[in-house]
Each structure stands twice: as structure tokens, then as C-alpha cells.
Design brief:
By secondary structure, the chain is of the alpha+beta class. The protein is built from 1 helix and 5 strands; from the N terminus they run ββββαβ. The radius of gyration is 13 Å and the shape is globular.
Amino acid sequence: MFILKRQDVEIKSVQHPKRDQQVPILTYQGQTFRLIKSFGASQVAEAKAYWRDLTDNHGKVCVLLQEPD
């Protein structure tokens, strides 16, 4: 399980290869992750459940980014 703090990652936007839109991504130790969902501070349980579903049921590598309120 990756739970990272904001100062540990670089966040930027890149152009989507097929659509006319910017895609937010984060980079951590040479690995790039796409931001797919944001949760508020009061939604910790929902964020962890979403992470578990993606990793356990779909075989995805996921990062939870913890930011101060």
C-alpha cells in the first residue's frame, strides 16, 4: 500500500493522447500515476475501500496521496 505525503511527489498535467484535455498525474520515485479520483478529508474509509477494490479485485497499482486539510 502506498500512502504518500504531498511533498514526496510531483504533480503536473499532461495532454491526453486522444482527447483535447489535460490529465493530472503524479510522479514518485520514477513511477507515474494518473489521478483518477479525489476524496475529501472526511472520506478516509471510502478512499481506502476504493484503493482496496482497485488493487485486490482489479490488479491495479494505486497510490493514496495524503494532503493536509
